[in-house]
Prior knowledge:
By secondary structure, the chain is mainly α. About 85% of the residues lie in helices and about 0% in strands. It has one domain (about 5-84). Helix 1 packs across helix 2 (about 30-65) and helix 2 crosses helix 3.
Amino acid sequence: MGKKDEKSMSEQRSKFVEGAKTNANIDEALATEIFDLIQKFAAYAYRRTLYAHAYLAFQTAWPAVHYPAEFLAANMTAELRDQE
């Protein structure tokens, strides 16, 4: 769920609200409120995953810069184990 495709988000909102009314007997106002909460969390959750990837990249970049021989040896050892 992102901001990039407003038309798609509008369609998904309509489907969600209709499904909530039909399948869960939830009124339109509550279904819209729930969709808004999910949409807000989706934006937050996406940023959290980017943070996790950036943190992991930093954790691997630091030893690669400061201990290149040991870092390469560890990577080659891990690759050999994966092939076996």
